[in-house]
UniProtKB/TrEMBL annotation:
Record-linked SMART domains: AAA
Entry-linked PANTHER family: ABC TRANSPORTER ATP-BINDING PROTEIN, CONSERVED COMPONENT OF ABC TRANSPORTER FOR NATURAL AMINO ACIDS-RELATED
ABC transporter domain: residues covered: 6-247
Pfam families in the record: ABC_tran (PF00005), BCA_ABC_TP_C (PF12399)
SUPFAM superfamilies from the UniProt entry: P-loop containing nucleoside triphosphate hydrolases (SSF52540)
Annotated keywords: ATP-binding, Nucleotide-binding, Transport
Protein name listed in UniProt: ABC transporter ATP-binding protein
UniProt-listed Gene3D superfamilies: P-loop containing nucleotide triphosphate hydrolases
GO molecular function terms noted in the UniProt entry: ATP binding
């Protein structure tokens, strides 16, 4: 469809003869927040890694804004406007929170890290970095070392690092993972605001978050999409309840 920003067609990936992505077809519409849910081991991380370019599919196609990006390296996808939230492991703990985001802006701009010191004072890096921090509620922490951030704040920092590259689409891999109820509520509030401005594709186990945020939900079980629909459609889908939601409740 014309308003599909991301189209996944018959995507396939196996590891050692075990099929983990089994002919996945999925569309993410421009402007929507689309959640991918499914039991442990369903293949969610494997799918998002193929979307971001960190893992090469065996077959099928990925189209972003109408362009075939299936064989494109991750940095080129990022230039086209697709950003995967950075993992906590990519945060430099000894650097300030702002420097971490400025580095993400610089990485996208393609400059060498050798020029970091003068670049740190470059407003073209600092201004978008600061704006991204404000959007995730970390503006007040900008000058503190990243090491002092709580787990929830580090996850917010990862999102700021992705946002600072001004992507059209954000890929978020379990943004609430490891959070307590209070931190989760803050992250949901942050994503509620972002969702008005970005197309978001997220994997998440926290069903409260999924049903609060998603415009549409797709359910992955054993590497296959068994249903896609609105939260109400998914909640009331007998097949989904049996295969996943019922299982969770039990
Ligand atoms: N590099 C790999 N080599 C071999 N098997 C892999 C590899 N990556 C993933 N798998 C297998 O693929 C299956 C799906 O894993 P994946 O991490 O994508 O699932 P998931 O839905 O993200 O699970 P979870 O919700 O627990 O994070 C698992 O059985 C996993 O062991």
């Amino acid at each position: 469809m014309a308003d599909d920003l991301l189209q996944i067609r018959d995507l396939r990936k196996s590891f050692g003869g075990i099929a983990v992505t089994v002919g996945v077809n999925l569309e993410v519409r421009r402007g929507e927040t689309h959640a991918l849910i499914g039991p442990n081991g369903a293949g969610k991380t494997t799918l998002i890694a193929q979307l971001s370019g960190d893992l090469k599919p065996d077959g099928g196609q990925i189209l972003f804004a109408g362009r075939d990006i299936t064989a494109m390296p991750a940095y080129r996808r990022s230039h086209l406007g697709m950003a995967r939230s950075f993992q906590i492991t990519s945060i430099f703990l000894e650097l300030s929170v702002l420097d971490n985001v400025a580095l993400a802006v610089q990485a996208r701009a393609g400059h060498s890290f050798r020029f970091w010191a003068p670049a740190r004072r470059d407003r073209r890096l600092v201004d978008p970095a600061m704006a991204a921090l404000e959007r995730v509620g970390l503006g007040g922490r900008a000058d503190r070392p990243a090491a002092i951030l709580s787990h929830g704040e580090r996850r917010a920092l990862e999102i700021a690092m992705a946002l600072a590259t001004e992507p059209e689409m954000l890929l978020l891999d379990e943004p609430m993972a490891g959070m307590g109820p209070e931190e989760s509520a803050e992250m949901i509030a942050t994503l509620q605001e972002l969702k008005a401005q970005k197309t978001i594709f997220l994997i998440e186990h926290d069903m409260d978050a999924v049903f609060a945020l998603a415009d549409r939900i797709s359910v992955l079980v054993y590497g296959k999409i068994i249903a896609s629909g609105t939260p109400d459609e998914i909640r009331n889908d007998e097949h989904v309840r049996r295969a996943y939601l019922g299982e969770e409740a039990a």
